[in-house]
Amino acid sequence: MGPRSDNVNLDEYDDEQVRLMQEMCIIVNEKDEKIGADTKKNCHLMENINKGLLHRAFSVFLFNSENKLLLQQRASEKITFPDLWTNTCCSHPLNTPLELEEEAQIGVRRAAQRKLEHELGIKPEKVPLDDFVFLTRIHYLAPSDGLWGEHEVDYILFIRGDITFDDIAVNKNEVKAAEFLSMEELNQKFNNPGDWKYTPWFKLICENFLFKWWKKLDDLESSKDVSTVHKLGF
Questions:
Q1: C-alpha span between 179 and 88 (Å, rounded)
Q2: Hey, what domains does the chain have and what are their CATH numbers?
Q3: Residue 90 falls in the annotated catalytic set
Q4: Where would one find coiled-coil regions in this protein (predicted)?
Q5: What is the Cα–Cα distance from 64 to 162, expressed in whole angstroms?
Q6: Cα dihedral sign, 88-187-77-172
Q7: Which entry of 99, 119, 150, 152 is annotated as an active-site residue?
C-alpha cells in the first residue's frame, strides 16, 4: 500500500463532523488482524481505500419488545452517505485500550454502546454489553461519492430490549430521523423504496442475511458464524 493521502480540505463540511474525522480507527488486514491505526478521515478517502486501506467497524441492529427493528436516517451533516437510511447504528471501534480488546468482541461491544448513546441517546444500561449478540463479520467496499467511501470489516451485532421512543434522544448532527419497522414493513420498503435510499452496507446485509436472521430472533445461536469474514459486493 502506498502513502496515505491527507491533503483534503474539510472547510466546506460541518465542524462537528470534521472534528470526528480525527478519531483514530483500527487498521486491519482481510483476516481482521490489527496492523495499525489511522484517522477516520484517512480511512474514508477513496484514494486510500483504492490502495487497500481497510478498517474495523460495527453495525448494530436493535430490536424492541415487538421484534421491530430501529432504523435511522443519517443526518445531512454526515460527510459520508448523508441522508441515507440504515440500520440502528453504524460506526467504528477506536484505537484505544478499551475498544481494542478482542476477547468476546468486548472492544466492539463497548464501541457499539458508546455510539448508541452518542447518536440516539440510548443509555448504556438499556443496552448492556452482554446483551449484544455477535453474528458474523462482513468485508465490503462502497464509494460514497468521488472523494469518500467505506472499506470495512464490519461486525454485525444484534440486540433486543424494551426500547421505546421515550428512551431515544436523537443527536440531530448524526441522525435526521428514526423509525421502528416490522420485518414485513422493511421488506416492503426495501423492495419498493420510494423516497427511501439505503446505505450500501445495509443493502448488502439485507440482501444476504438480515431477513433470515430476523426470523430466528429467538434462536440467534443457530445464525452465528463467528469465524468467517464474508466478502460482499466485490
A1: 9
A2: 15-231 (3.90.79.10)
A3: yes
A4: none
A5: 5
A6: negative
A7: 152
What share of the chain in percent tops pLDDT 70? 97
Return the SS3 of 44.
coil
Smallest CA-to-CA distance from 88 within 168, 18, 15, 195 is with 168
Backbone φ, ψ for residue 177 (5° rounding): -155, 160
The length of the chain in residues reads 234
DSSP 14-35: -HHHHHHTTSEEEEE-TT--EE
Q: How far apart are CA 205 and CA 207, in angstroms?
A: 6
- In single-letter form, the type of residue at position 133 comes to V
> pLDDT of 146-166, one tens digit each?
899 999 999 999 999 999 999
d(CA 42, CA 17): 14
User: Do 58 and 108 form a contact (C-beta atoms < 8 A)?
Assistant: yes
pLDDT digit string, tens, across residues 34-51:
999 999 999 999 999 999
List 25, 43, 89, 90, catalytic entry: 90
16 is catalytic: no
Q: Three cell numbers at 73?
A: 436516517
What secondary structure letter does DSSP report for 101?
Answer: -
C-alpha cell at 214: 430476523
Give the predicted TM-score (pTM) of the model: 0.94
- Please give the average per-residue pLDDT across 76-92, as a whole number: 95
